[in-house]
Amino acid sequence: MARPDELVFAPLGGVGEIGMNLSIYGLGNRHQRAWLAIDLGVSFGDEEHLPGIDLIMPDISFLEKERKNLMGLVLTHAHEDHFGAIIDLWPKLQCPIYATQFSAALFEAKCAAERNPPRIPVTVIPSGGRVDIGPFNVEFIPVAHSIPESHALAIHTEAGTVLHTGDWKIDPTPIIGRPTDERRLRQLGEEGVLALIGDSTNAVREGRSPSEAEVARTIIELVKEAKGRVAVTTFASNVARIKAVADAARAADREVVVVGRAMERVVQVARETGYLDGVQNFRSPEVYGHLPQEKVLALCTGSQGEPRAALARIANDDHPEITLNRGDSVIFSSRTIPGNEKAVGSIINNLVLQGVEVITDRTHLVHVSGHPRRDELRDMIAWTKPQLLIPVHGEPLHLHEHARLARAAGVPRVLVCRNGDLVKLGPGDPGIVGEVPSGRLYKDGTILEDSKSRAVVERRRMAFSGCAFVAIAMTAQGELVDEPEVDLVGIPEKNKAGETFDDLVFDAVVSTIEGLPRARRRDPDALGESVRRAVRAVINEHWGKKPPCLVHVLTV
User: Fold this and answer.
1) Among the listed residues 402, 334, 370, the one whose alpha carbon sits nearest the alpha carbon of residue 171
2) SMART domains in the record, alphabetically (predicted)?
3) Among 121, 193, 206, 445, which has the highest number of CB atoms less than 10 A from its own CB?
């Protein structure tokens, strides 16, 4: 009798970290599996550790090798950490993509904003609908989140049903879109859920996430009370928050001016897909300066401190149309993503120095998370009754706490894994049965580099200790043609004793060349290596750092 097909799961991003989500499910045996990919997202570069890197993406080398067996890519929702890598990576996969209407429309708008985007077809599936993708039957179950049309995915297979939650929360009053479909999730629990692959972002927080409706009430009060101009910044994709801000502006008899391309794009897509029906028309930035101070509200991008986004330019007083003055107010209707604290803090400080009143979630309920807290996680477990729970979408602490909560809630099996682990879900006992290649790709300008790339490693070293450049011209007999040229970048001008580093390095180069036997001086590689070592040594002696040193030897 033939053995039944195994159902396996492997995260290639988004486990042990928040962002860069990519999960794959396989059905078959060790020699031949059909694969289904869920989400393909990015995380953002950190200038301190990855200077010049814009985006970080999951390594998809495994999927490239399995391309003929990759049945499709399904999107849970249209946040950048779930779909931001598609334009760069899809050409390597060329598989069908499935998404609901809003996600597909936002992706199309994102492609249109690119210079030369690849033509990427997306099959639109209705919210609550089902689609056969190879041997997988995928059901889109509505869940509340901070963007329209977020969906948990019930992946139905011969080996059992997996619930991949995506990003979700329980919000009975979500302002826009449908609440989390408790009825269908309970039905799934009765039918039998083999595994729950669940969002862990807020697993350390007790209680429940407040509702978007509560935030809307706070924003209405704050905008009504404001005396001068008001600016509100939030995640551009949060259409419910955009509607709440629009309602607050209308209640206070203010016009909404939309500032920032990402916000303009989402507003356009939300209007086209019906999510802003009945909401007043917004104005463009050119009219901002012509409206009375008490009649205007600027809705801005830049809640995460992005240097070229609208709010940073306003705070630095270099935005061409939008200005704020003493007595005006800025509402940060967002939370600061870990790693962005310095950038956001700098904007807040600049605004405060200008006499602007800054309101954040530290003092007012102006933001709520789109992710479930512990009581909501317990509800999901109670509704779906999974045989196995695997925490994902979180840093190690979040995964650990979600796992501990699941065990306490009576889930029979709980398994914590890492990116690259191949997990057997069923039939039979679940467990980690292997490993698949995983890692990171860095978007460096227009080029994708892997994490070991020379450019990434060297730039990090140069950011820490500068760089030394030396050019030497030698005769075929091993004599200097002229004085060496030395150029030091990012290195102090003088040491503690007041000696210039240019002179110290120059002397070290000349003395090294003169001290070498003639045979080594005639060998460009040997000469270059000796000079490189000498330059790094002398700079380290006087500065305590060893910068990269590039030596160019020209033989004439």
Assistant:
1) 370
2) Lactamase_B
3) 193
Backbone φ, ψ for residue 53 (5° rounding)? -90, 120
- 391 phi and psi, to 5 degrees? -75, 135
Residue identified by tokens 């970290």 is 17
d(CA 281, CA 279): 7
493: which 2 tokens? 């001008």
Dist CA 410 CA 400 (whole Å): 16
| Helix, strand, or coil (residue 362) | coil
Residue written as tokens 């992710």?
A: 371
Query: How far is the C-alpha of 445 from the C-alpha of 439, rounded, in Å?
Result: 19
* DSSP per-residue string spanning 507-520: HHHHHHHHHS-HHH
pTM summary value: 0.89
And the tokens for 469?
């450049």
Q: Convert 10-66 into a string of H (helix), E (strand) and C (coil).
A: EEEECECECCCCEEEEEEEECCEEEEEEECCCCEECCCCCCCCCCEEEECCHHHHHC
- Specify the 3-state DSSP secondary structure of 376: helix
Segment (H or E) for 530: helix 524-543
Q: Which residue has the tokens 């694969």?
A: 35
Contacts of 375 (CB under 8 A, 6+ apart): 206, 207, 208
Confidence at 48, pLDDT banded by 50, 70, 90: low
Of 52-56, 152-156, 355-359, which gets the smallest average pLDDT? 52-56
Q: What is the pLDDT of residues 130-143, one digit of tens each?
A: 999 999 999 999 99
Q: How confident is the model at residue 1, as a pLDDT?
A: 42
**Which one, of 53, 55, 49, 41, lies nearest residue 12 by Cα?**
41
Enumerate residues 6+ apart whose C-beta is below 8 A from 172: 179, 211
Is the separation of the CB atoms in 443 and 435 below 8 Å?
no
Give yes or no for a contact between 460 and 51, defined as CB atoms under 8 angstroms apart: yes
Cβ-proximal residues to 496 (8 Å cutoff; 6+ apart), any chain: 542
Largest CA distance in the chain: 87
Quote the Cα angle for 143-18-116, to 5°.
85
Question: Burial level of 447, CB count in 10 A (0-12/13-18/19+)?
Answer: exposed
d(CA 68, CA 106) in angstroms, rounded, equals 28
Half-sphere exposure of 331 (CA within 13 A, CB side): 31
Task: Report which of 500, 490, 485 is spatially closest to residue 531, judged by C-alpha positions.
Answer: 485
Contact 23, 195 (CB under 8 A): no
For 145, 191, 325, 336, the CA distances from 14, given in Å and listed in that order, are 17, 29, 41, 19
Residue 435 in contact with residue 420, Cβ under 8 Å?
yes
Q: What angle do CA 134, 140, 145 make, to 5 degrees?
A: 140
